[in-house]
Amino acid sequence: MSRPMQSGPTSSSPDEPRRAPSSRLTWVDSGRGIAIVLVALYHSASWLLGAGFPIDTWRQINEALSALRMPLFFVLAGLFAAKWLVSSWGDLWRSKIRLFAWVFIVWEAIGSVVYMIGLRMKGNGIDVLGAARDLLLSPFAPRFELWFIWALALFFIVAKLLRRVDWRIQLAVAGLASAIALSGWETANVGWSGSIKYFFFFLAGLYLRQTILSIGRMRIGPVAILAVATWVGLSTVIAIFSLRWVPGLYFVDCLLGVFTGIMASRALAGVPRLVSIGSNTMPIYLAHTPVIILTAYAVSLLATVVPFGATAWLLPPIVAAFAITVSLLLSNAAQKPPLALLYRPPGRGVARVS
């Protein structure tokens, strides 16, 4: 078999993976766990803010954490994607794209209904016909947090189409586009914008795999500590002073965020619960936002009777933990039809977002 991702004598990446390891890397699962927990925390704070809770501090906290959250998720998603570039299109469809497409459509429909409850909670009007139209258009213009699933399917397809293009050109072009998009340029759709922002990080995980794995093995010395400290300081400054608009600054922050995320993944690889969460991110990603919306709505009704006061600041991590737990319980309960169809197309198993 020819070497993967090769289009010429000098086009293959020096970090090009030969074969995915047979054993799982614990820190990779803990990294996925960190990313999905931060995603749930972000959405919990956002919907609780929308419900009127005075937790503005969480806005800046999540802003600072954003440079780690999605970049790390996409780097880890690309880390073991190499085999799909040399597999047949049929294998890619059956093993990845079909699953992503199915759960995207199913949970877009569920999300559309729950989102209207969220709009009511915020005091906004509900446009049923508009929601139905947006649902029909969602395969082309994804909505809600499910843009990640849509983007991931797109990344696998585009990476396979580009497999014979020099990996350095791919990273350079995707990196430039990412730097521009992360500096404040937005498209008309969250999925389109997110794809431009984060395709570089997926490609980095794909083509710089050995470098990423080496970082996961490196000694935590002065250089690593300085890099993490720089990320903490830079993320804080960007969040406090709203400096994302500075060209390239937030992109650099995201690169440092990936490094910091890997260091944190290593440090927390001994936490079994986090590793377990990271090895099963798909059900959490699909269900956590509807659970968060319904929970935020219930808590907002409770607040009219029992004011939370200063304790409202504790709500985002509590709601996030609850949403993760409920999402996993729902997935565990949905092992047989018809509930199993929430997580897999007929005849397919549940796959991890990786």
From TrEMBL:
Cell membrane is among the record's keywords = yes
Q: What is its subcellular localisation?
A: Cell membrane
User: Which keywords are on file for this protein?
Assistant: Acyltransferase, Cell membrane, Membrane, Transferase, Transmembrane, Transmembrane helix
The record lists the membrane-crossing segments as 34-55, 67-87, 99-118, 144-162, 169-185, 220-243, 249-271, 283-306, 312-334
- Membrane topology (UniProt): Multi-pass membrane protein
Polar residues bias locations? 1-14
Tell me the superkingdom of the source.
Bacteria
Location, primary (coarse class): membrane
Residue ranges for the region (Disordered) are: 1-24
User: Can you tell me which residues the record assigns to a coiled coil?
Assistant: none
Q: Where is the Acyltransferase domain?
A: 26-331
The answer, when asked if Disulfide bond is one of the entry's keywords, is no
Tell me which family the UniProt entry assigns to this protein. Answer: Belongs to the acyltransferase 3 family.
- The protein's name is Acyltransferase
